[in-house]
Amino acid sequence: MFINKTTLTRQLYMQFAQRAYRRFRKGWQIGALIITILFAALTAFSYSVSKILAGVLTLPTLWFLFMGTRGYMITGKNQYNQLVSHHGKNPQLRVRFQEHDLEYQIGSSRLSIPYSELDGSFETKELFALLKGEQGMILEKKGFTKGNWEDFQLFIKEKAPQAFR
Length: 165
Fold this sequence. Notes:
By secondary structure, the chain is of the alpha+beta class. It has helices spanning 10-24, 26-49, 51-70, 72-87, 149-159, and strands spanning 2-7, 92-97, 101-106, 109-114, 120-123, 127-132, 135-140, 144-146. The strands form 2 sheets. It has a 5-stranded antiparallel sheet, with no helix packed on it. The protein has a 3-stranded antiparallel sheet with strand order 5-6-7, covered by helices on one side.
């Protein structure tokens, strides 16, 4: 059928992390942005009372703003570092697409996933990700060693249409 081999570089993983963060942490992002607005209002109000207090309140305001908009930079870096510590520098992913399921392999770990369990997907310029819950299978578009990206798109949309809703 199709086989994809992807070398998971930090740059490629961060592309995945940015899009996955938006999908999986949407509630957290909204909450962080609401807290940012509240802290900003409190900071503005406290400025008239005490400039020192306003200065102190500026730090959590900026922190929540950062976490709401760019938190993936921290979580993505930490997750990538964990992958590297378990599987070596630039881990190799291999995904083999069979008739009824896919086989996902990283290092010596293997996992078979029926297409019916996939519940999401997204793509960037360089990668395509299939999602099962909060797990992502990252495919580099140019990483197909059997089949090609164009034919794969038709195949996966037929096997897992629920992943594209």
